[in-house]
Write a structure and sequence with these properties.
With about 725 residues, the protein is of the alpha+beta class. It folds into three domains: about 180 residues, Aldehyde Oxidoreductase, domain 4; about 325 residues, Aldehyde oxidase/xanthine dehydrogenase, molybdopterin binding domain (Aldehyde Oxidoreductase, domain 4); about 100 residues, 2-Layer Sandwich (Aldehyde Oxidoreductase, domain 4). It contains 17 helices and 26 strands. A seven-stranded mixed sheet has the order 3-6-1-13-10-11-12, with helices on both faces. A hairpin with a 5-residue loop joins strand 22 and strand 23. The longest helix has 20 residues.
Amino acid sequence: CTGYKKVTKSCLTAAEALRSNAKIELPQSSGKVGESLPKYDALRLATGEAPYVADLKFEGMVHGALKFSDHPRAKVLKIDTSVAEKLDGVLRVFTAEDIPGERFTGLIVPDWPLMLKRGETTRYVGDVLAGIVAETEQIAREAVALIDVEYEVLTPITDPFDALSKNCPQIHKKGNLLSTTEIKRGDSKKAEKESAFVTKGTYTTQRIEHAFLEIECCVAQPLEGGVEVFSQSQGVYEDRSSISKILGLPQKKVVVVLMPNGGGFGGKEDLSVQGHAALFAQLLQVPVRVALTRPESLCMHPKRHPMIMEMSLGCDKNGKLTFVEADIIGDTGAYASVGMKVLERAAGHAAGAYSIPIVNLRSRAVYTNNVPCGAMRGFGVNQINFAIESCVDELCSQGGFDRWQIRYDNALQPGDRTSTGQKITSGIGIQKTLLAVKEQFQSAKFAGIACGMKNTGIGNGVPDESKVRVVIESPTEITIHHGWTEMGQGVFTMAVQFLCEATGVNPNFISVKVDTSKDTPCGMTTASRGTSLIGNSVLDAGKKLKADLETHSLEELVGREYVGEWVCDWTTSIEANADEPQTHYSYSYATQVVTLDDSGKVETVFAAHDAGRIVNPILFEGQLEGSVHMGLGYALSEKFEMEEGRPVHTKFGKLGMIRAAATPEIVVIGIEEPDEFGPCGAKGVGEIGLVPTASAVANAFFQFNGERQYELPLKQVN
């Protein structure tokens, strides 16, 4: 999440200290909001002392491995495990028949089987057909290779347009169309005729990989008639819900403990190996570790949606935007994951950060036999931003408008409406971000500019909620129990800082823990909502502790517990057709400028971002550096290619990620336009940082050679 500059510096500092056996002194801070408190657990993480799931060892622990489908679409005729069962060291072979509870899971639609049965048809190469537990991982993998599967191989459906055709085979019983989102305000055809300038184009974005460093791994062990699961997931409470259904156990019998997470970016929302590890441990009554290899990981977990977006945008003779029309198709792959929400989000942000009075939008998520696509940093907004921001520049070319001025003149202001019709009344920092980069943009020889907005919170009628427990353990020990996943973005640090802000306690007294036995549900760590939700709930608990501290010392409060909660339950779904839609409770805003050198190479990225209130300046800067780096890869080089339902490459080095040393200069500019619902006015910035990046690069390339590019990744111009 925090790019490479700060990670590299911390690793070099830690390495030097370890070699010389020197003590690392961390900067001291009150921990209050606005200060750069060192990241929670930074010392243990940088020095390699923090254990990840893969580091766990328990007495009697055994190892599991999974048998994946050899074909993206094939009927499974036979699964012969007899030879594998006889291999020395094999403890048991598992198939779908061994699942005591529900076989299908899913974050929204339960369409994803833990294992397929004989007679069923595979939907992608990441489908699991069987599992083996053995004394060692090597034996388990050798045994998996001995499983003989007989298939009736079928032609995979890999194109979403083919999948929607009349005579196409159905991947799921309900058809190949997962979802449709439609938003219409006004008569777009009439507006098009009356517009002075109209641009139309079909914009295409690619499938890409999250590229988190920590491969999926889970350890599970029996616990008092149930199971204890050590997870790296982005939502331990969602893990608990799914695992309890798989095992047929009440949720109180499943405890999920969050371990340090080595990166997620949305790719660890869906269940991966947690269900298998829990199943194996429960049935064998011994601790079981299940880990994927990198190729298995790349084949199994969801990616960023590739989208095809037909967009039309118009303006009057003065450059005032008049209408936007878009038809968006997203390849959601074999299973739903959160595909319907990603495409919903794309439609909901199709107008960008601009006031456009007339909209006509449709987005569709379509099943194919490709690797599933789900959550990834930006969640559908990156894709549609590429289309809308390219169209804005095209209007400038047609009408001779200034590219900065047209954005400033059309930027959302209080009382304006978003794509969904939501009236925005406050906290709108888009014009401030434009002003922050005006000089850099106008003084550059070759510069691209793009604006962006991104929701905070899931919204769309789904409650956003958070609960924390603050426990006074001793006069110098306070524990914050919550449910959010720390995956580099700094949510644990946010928890500490908001408690310090509310109470004035020493940040060194505070520890943060996540496990489901503490009953602090919060849902998935997603939608840039961690800071706002944990912040509000910690402030709620903190004010109660603060009141007690007025008349008591911490020593006198030992054993006390303070519960804090915050719930947003007033948003409305798009389908509700509410008179006054409230799609999300908050939005973040950004403008980025990309400058090129005389050869056409990206030289500098200026990133001006409205964070509402910058809680931790160093973490804020790191979030934006990491976001921009990821956005540059999306713009220039990254692509997870598939042929006939199979990944072309299963090595990181072949996926086009930009190396750390090749990162151009990134200048982060913080803007603070407080949010009325944010803790101390804060907004989420985890995703907005890469929403406009690819668009700004594309617009810079057009300025360099006059060629409009409609597809990501872009062709290099140098």
